[in-house]
Amino acid sequence: MKLIRFGDLNREKPGVELEDGKRLNVSSFTIDYNEDFFAEDGIQKLKEWLSSNHNSCSEIPSDIRLGSPLKRPSKLICIGLNYAKHAEESGMKPPQEPVLFFKATSAIVGPNDDLIIPKNSKKTDWEVELAVVIGKKTSYCSESEAMDAVAGYVLHNDYSEREFQLEREGQWVKGKSCDTFAPLGPYLVTKDEIKDPNNLNLWLKLNGKTMQDSNTSDFVFNIAEVVSYISQFMTLLPGDVISTGTPFGVGMGLKPQRYLRSGDVVELGIDGLGSSRQHVKAYEE
């Protein structure tokens, strides 16, 4: 099943996208795709409800804006340097254990919303990533238990301001959390529809030119390892998002380096998770 949220920013309603591409409004079933929805086995209950109620759901026009497919989660956790070739292009050795950092959830926007280059930014970069959505409260889980905690998957562009991230004092979070730096979607795909999340093609284009083209098989740490690892240090709550890192081909790794400019168009996608498109615009007072 594919979960979507649609409508104006901060006023989105829940919906689903069917196999034929038709989109249905399911706001009569649930208020939103939030922590309570996932904690109360909402995905399974929604499937059952749709089987007898889909004919009563209104169809969503194709031109309506899509928001993030889940309401702002309690946390958005990212994994750094989780592709072997990306670590190499960054001039770093693959880590011995997952590198964790947070991305502010205020950065989350819809899949096709504009990317706003932050004020005083010189090095805004792109990063196509597979993100995992947690389906139940989880702590201290083993790798063999980890996949039971997963609700589904979503496409994420982990935009990064490299000067803020790497050349300023402190942790990476400053370069990761600017407004619009976390477009999610177009939809959340439930885990039953993704046969092997550790073997998915993912790609990103800048102005029509392919910049990233890889596969999650290049993970340093796979999905189960990442979920289990994080759960040793914090409780994962229903609806939490884990972004699993980006493959090689980011602007920082190019020679010469290339960063985003106003007028650029970024397109990205992952097998089974759809695609998204962001127009790049400069910050305005």
User: What Rg is obtained from the alpha carbons, in whole angstroms?
Assistant: 18 Å
- CATH topology of the largest domain: the name is Fumarylacetoacetate hydrolase, domain 2
Order of strands in the sheet with the most strands? 3-2-1-13-10-9-16-4-5
Instruction: Report the structural category.
Output: alpha+beta
What is the total number of structural domains? 2
Proportion of residues in β-strands:
25-35%
Instruction: Give me the CATH superfamily of the largest domain.
Output: Fumarylacetoacetase-like, C-terminal domain
Beginning-to-end CA distance, first to last residue: 41 Å
CATH architecture of the largest domain: Alpha-Beta Complex
Give the helices and strands as they follow along the chain. EEEHHEHEEEEEHEEHEEEEHEEE
Number of helices: 6
The averaged pLDDT comes out at: 96
Number of strands: 18
Uncertain segments are: none
Q: Main sheet, how many strands, which sense, barrel?
A: 9 strands, mixed
What is the overall shape?
globular
Question: So what's the CATH class of the largest domain?
Answer: Alpha Beta
Pfam families: FAA_hydrolase (PF01557)
GO molecular function, one term: metal ion binding
Protein name: 2-hydroxyhepta-2,4-diene-1,7-dioate isomerase
Family: Belongs to the FAH family.
